[in-house]
Amino acid sequence: MKKVILSLGLAVMTTGAVFAQDKKTVQTTTTAAATTTLTADNMSFVADNHDFGDVQEGPTADYEFTFKNTGKEPIIIQRVQPSCGCTTPSYSKEPIAPGKTGIIKASYNTSGRPGQFTKTLTVVSNAGTKVLTIKGTVEKAPTSSVPENSSMIKTN
């Protein structure tokens, strides 16, 4: 009987605590979307994909994608999202004026990643979304410059 009364008391207190909280009214304000004449095609890239070919494991593989603003308004890059954590993007933070060029740099970490890779960078800007691609093959680094002892005799 004690358990039933205790459970009912706990339920009443929990319900009271839930209803005692202030209800915050959220006012939604609608702002007119900024009208723009820009499209993703106004980010005119020299190339939207890059093949590194064969690279050695260890150092990062870096490439700079350059683009020209062919529109009539500045392009503002909001973010560059890589497809995984092994790729690090960096990009022009300031608005790219019409006729000027911007840079998006992709750095691929090759350490511990031998084999083929294909990674994407999704560029989100006020001109729209553009996807850039990097690919290549990471050649496994040699384990040591000293030949490995393959005899059955332990050397310890």
Written overview of the protein:
This protein is mainly beta. The protein has a domain at 40-138: Immunoglobulin-like (Sandwich). It is 12% helix and 40% strand. The protein has a 4-stranded antiparallel sheet, with no helix packed on it. Strands 2-8-7-4 form a 4-stranded mixed sheet, with no helix packed on it. The chain is flat.
Q: Could you give the order of the helices and strands? A: HEEEEEEEE
Radius of gyration, in Å, reads 28 Å
The parts where pLDDT drops under 50 for at least 5 residues are 25-33
Total beta-strand segments: 8
Which strand-content bin applies to the residues? Answer: 35-45%
Number of contiguous helices? 1
Main structural class: mainly beta
Give the helix proportion (percent range): 10-25%
> What's the shape?
flat
- Kindly report how far apart the N and C termini lie: 72 Å
Q: What is the mean pLDDT?
A: 82
- CATH fold field value of the domain at 40-138: Immunoglobulin-like
Largest beta sheet, briefly? 4 strands, antiparallel
- Read across the widest sheet, the strand sequence of neighbours is 1-3-6-5
CATH architecture of the domain at 40-138: Sandwich
Which key phrases capture this entry?
156 residues; mainly beta; Immunoglobulin-like; 40% strand
Present the secondary structure layout.
Blueprint: H1 2-20, E1 43-45, E2 49-56, E3 61-69, E4 77-82, E5 87-91, E6 101-108, E7 115-125, E8 128-139
Parallel strand pairs: 2-8
Antiparallel strand pairs: 1-3, 3-6, 4-7, 5-6, 7-8
